[in-house]
Amino acid sequence: MRQTSFADMQCSLARTLDVAGDWWSPLILRDLYFGMRRFDDIARDLGISRNLLTSRLNALVEHGVVARTQYQDRPPRHHYQLTESGRELVPILMALTAWGDRWATPEGGPPIRFQHTECGHRFTPTVSCSSCARPITADTVALSPGPGARTGPGTALVHEFVPGAEPGGPAEV
């Protein structure tokens, strides 16, 4: 059971973690992307308890990341699939996997390889600029407050990254 909710934070990262940031949700999303649809298959693959999987799937459905469709009445059975919102999380999960391949590699090497279906090449997932397509690194990004920047929990650092911004004061773009 999650003890802290980030839903009220004025931070897109915190709110994303509130939706899909527990330990199990990214693995559930991965399994759905890989084609698992049935509750029992996901539970068996992950070794997760049924009540925990139920809780995580219910939260993902509630937030519109996963869709649930009943395929049997007695007993009621459902299958699950990623929504558009869930499919947009897949490249992020791939980037996390690439980080794991580099910094937390399982014995024997990466357990999966990615192949781009449009060009046929194997690739390492990266995050790139939506304008120039160059890779993004911690050293190649400047931050500034966005239109939703507000003072509140989890937002103090936004002001520290912006020259001339007052810590704790209103963010001006």
UniProtKB/TrEMBL annotation:
Highest taxon listed in the record's lineage: Bacteria
Boundaries of every HTH hxlR-type domain copy: 11-108
Keywords of this entry: DNA-binding, Transcription, Transcription regulation
Pfam families reported in the protein's UniProt record: HxlR
InterPro entries: ArsR-like_HTH (IPR011991), HTH_HxlR (IPR002577), WH-like_DNA-bd_sf (IPR036388), WH_DNA-bd_sf (IPR036390)
SUPFAM superfamilies in the record: Winged helix' DNA-binding domain
GO MF, any single term: DNA binding
TM spans (from-to): none
UniProt-listed PANTHER family: TRANSCRIPTIONAL REGULATOR, MARR FAMILY (PTHR33204), TRANSCRIPTIONAL REGULATORY PROTEIN (PTHR33204:SF18)
Official protein name in the record: Transcriptional regulator, HxlR family
